[in-house]
């Protein structure tokens, strides 16, 4: 159970502590931040409202710890990460419990965030697995250097030998989103640590308690003091203070528009940003309708559409649109709507603000004449799944991401029309195309201005070692295990200069040696 057993020390009365300098602490502010359960809409948990002074101390400890950590052998860093992964796997149940209560993740998805595959005889825990994989990948990537000889440049023939290696950036600030507060935290923590950095985590408010439990697993693994910290609090007090802090050497952020503001204020430090998308699903005449419908349900409605990589607009050829809409509607009718504890498919969206925003998009679509395939239904933060057919470009839902269980269908007459709509978006995260014609699929993929195009499947970030990147307003840089490790390092060169070219040695040379 959350906050009990090995997790008892992270809770003081009813308030979760923050983690700094290897210890769980109460903030000197004596203030707390409430985490509202999206289902009951009542306070579920409380976390510390850290002060700027506490952030300063965390940054100092992170800097000191990093200087020692960078000298820690790779195998030792990897060993600790493997240990943390094992502890995380062991304690997946209380963490999943927090995910259900603070972000209304259905039980099966909450376990999926920590558990990716469930076989008859063993389970692989997704986040734990990601940590272990990162440890292995890091040992290989970081153990390699590069060697260059100067002979391509006139006047430098073989007089210069350049040795390059990857060194850590320093202190990484990780800011994961509410929808994956554990998985998208460890996808930043593990590469940062294996690469020799220290890490400061600022979890989302909704999701903070899941993240604090996860951080405790790293604490139990025995990482050095100050190497990992986790500060909680109000964005107005410590948000900008953290992202603009001079002690931060890199920011890895996943979330919404806030990322654009962060990137403008952050200054000259490397940024890794994933800021959402309007992932289009282009469906051609020859597509397998059953496959498309199944992927629209999975891609558009899993976790109630609250995924950056959710299918957010269907662009279907008019000739098969009726058949596809009918099939998707039949599948929507099967979705179970209700509380996350009942393992429903559609659960309350994260907040009332979010539900109101989604409702605004639905009202706009209604006023402008979209066809409602289901009746619009809302109870508190719970919104029933809704397919909007005959959506036109003048409707907000054609361009904005609802981050909820509402999916627009735009009927198209040509492939070019579909590509045009996709590329007119300010987002460029992922897209997908359904067709049996692989040549057409590849041409469409080539034309779509998105970081990834899935052929005959819904968009998805995983597997976690695949490259994951957004174009345009969807992000900066590329994620995925190897890319994140490389991104959290910089190149260091040492150049050995010879007094005479090395080719003067040996047969035919004219060296005096
Ligand atoms: O919304 C965050 C994004 O990374 C989604 O991940 O694994 O659901 O495709 P995934």
Explain what the structure shows.
This protein is an alpha/beta fold. The protein has 2 domains: 287 residues, 3-Layer(aba) Sandwich (Aldehyde Dehydrogenase, Chain A, domain 1); 190 residues, Aldehyde Dehydrogenase, Chain A, domain 2 (3-Layer(aba) Sandwich), CATH 3.40.309.10. 36% of the residues lie in helices and 22% in strands. The protein has a 7-stranded mixed beta sheet, with helices on both faces. Strands 13-12-11-14-15-28 form a 6-stranded mixed beta sheet. The chain has a 4-stranded mixed beta sheet with strand order 1-2-6-5. The longest helix has 18 residues. The chain is globular, with a radius of gyration of 25 Å. The termini are far apart. The protein binds SN-glycerol-3-phosphate. SN-glycerol-3-phosphate binds next to loops.
Q: So, CATH architecture of the largest domain?
A: 3-Layer(aba) Sandwich
Summarize the main sheet: 7 strands, mixed
> How much is the average pLDDT?
94
CATH topology of the largest domain: Aldehyde Dehydrogenase, Chain A, domain 1
Evaluate the radius of gyration: 25 Å
Draw up the topology in text.
Layout: E1 11-12, E2 15-16, E3 18-20, E4 23-25, E5 32-36, E6 43-48, H1 52-69, H2 74-90, H3 92-103, H4 107-114, E7 117-118, E8 123-124, H5 126-142, E9 146-149, E10 160-168, E11 171-175, H6 183-194, E12 198-201, H7 208-221, E13 228-230, H8 235-243, E14 250-254, H9 258-265, E15 271-274, E16 280-283, H10 289-301, E17 313-317, H11 318-332, H12 352-367, E18 371-372, E19 378-379, E20 382-383, E21 386-389, E22 406-412, H13 415-424, E23 427-428, E24 430-434, H14 438-447, E25 452-455, E26 468-469, E27 471-472, E28 475-476, E29 478-479, H15 481-487, E30 489-497
Parallel strand pairs: 2-6, 11-12, 11-14, 12-13, 14-15, 16-17, 16-24, 17-22, 21-22, 24-25
Antiparallel strand pairs: 1-2, 3-4, 5-6, 7-8, 9-10, 10-30, 15-28, 18-21, 19-20, 23-27, 26-29
Helix pairs in contact: 2-5, 2-7, 3-4, 3-7, 5-6, 5-15, 6-15, 10-11
């Amino acid at each position: 159970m959350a906050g009990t057993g090995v997790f008892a020390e992270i809770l003081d009365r009813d308030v979760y502590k923050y983690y700094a300098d290897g210890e769980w602490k109460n903030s000197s502010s004596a203030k707390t931040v409430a985490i509202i359960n999206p289902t009951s809409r009542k306070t579920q948990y409380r976390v510390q409202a850290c002060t700027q002074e506490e952030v300063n101390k965390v940054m100092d400890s992170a800097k000191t710890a990093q200087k020692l950590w960078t000298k820690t052998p790779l195998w030792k860093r990897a060993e600790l990460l493997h240990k943390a992964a094992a502890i995380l796997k062991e304690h997946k149940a209380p963490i999943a419990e927090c995910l259900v209560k603070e972000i209304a993740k259905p039980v099966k998805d909450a376990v999926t965030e920590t558990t990716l595959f469930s076989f008859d005889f063993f389970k692989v825990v997704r986040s734990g697995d990601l940590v272990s994989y990162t440890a292995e990948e890091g040992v290989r990537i970081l153990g390699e250097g590069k060697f260059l000889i100067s002979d391509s440049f006139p006047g430098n023939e073989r007089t210069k030998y350049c040795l390059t290696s990857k060194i850590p950036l320093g202190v990484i600030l990780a800011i994961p989103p509410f929808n994956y507060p554990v998985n998208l935290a460890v996808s930043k923590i593990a590469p940062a640590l294996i690469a020799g950095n220290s890490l400061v985590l600022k979890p989302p408010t909704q999701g903070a308690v899941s993240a604090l439990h996860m951080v405790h697993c790293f604490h139990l693994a025995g990482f050095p003091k100050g190497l990992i910290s986790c500060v909680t609090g109000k964005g107005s007090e410590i948000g900008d203070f953290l992202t603009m802090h001079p002690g931060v050497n890199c920011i890895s952020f996943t979330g919404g528009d806030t990322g654009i503001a962060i990137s403008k204020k952050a200054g000259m430090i490397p940024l890794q940003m994933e800021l959402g998308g309007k992932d289009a699903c282009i469906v051609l005449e020859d597509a397998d309708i059953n496959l498309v419908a199944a992927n629209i349900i999975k891609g558009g409605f899993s976790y109630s559409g609250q995924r950056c990589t959710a299918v957010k607009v269907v662009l279907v050829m008019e000739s098969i649109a009726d058949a596809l809409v009918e099939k998707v509607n039949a599948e929507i009718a099967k979705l179970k709507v209700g509380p996350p504890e009942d393992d429903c498919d559609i659960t309350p969206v994260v907040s009332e603000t979010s539900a109101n925003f989604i409702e605004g998009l639905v009202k706009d679509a209604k006023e402008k004449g979209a066809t409602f395939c289901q009746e619009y239904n809302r109870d508190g933060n719970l919104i029933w799944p809704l397919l909007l057919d005959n959506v036109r470009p003048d409707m907000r839902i054609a361009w904005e991401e609802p981050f909820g269980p509402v999916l627009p269908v735009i009927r198209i007459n040509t492939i070019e029309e579909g590509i045009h709509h996709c590329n007119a978006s300010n987002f460029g995260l992922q897209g997908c195309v359904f067709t049996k014609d692989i040549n057409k699929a590849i041409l469409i993929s080539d034309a779509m201005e998105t970081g990834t195009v899935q052929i005959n499947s819904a968009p998805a970030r995983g597997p976690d070692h695949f490259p994951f990147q957004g174009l345009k307003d969807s992000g900066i840089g590329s994620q995925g295990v190897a890319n994140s490790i490389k991104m959290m390092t910089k190149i260091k060169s040492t150049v050995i200069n010879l007094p005479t070219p090395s080719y003067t040695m040996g047969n035919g040379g004219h060296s005096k040696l």
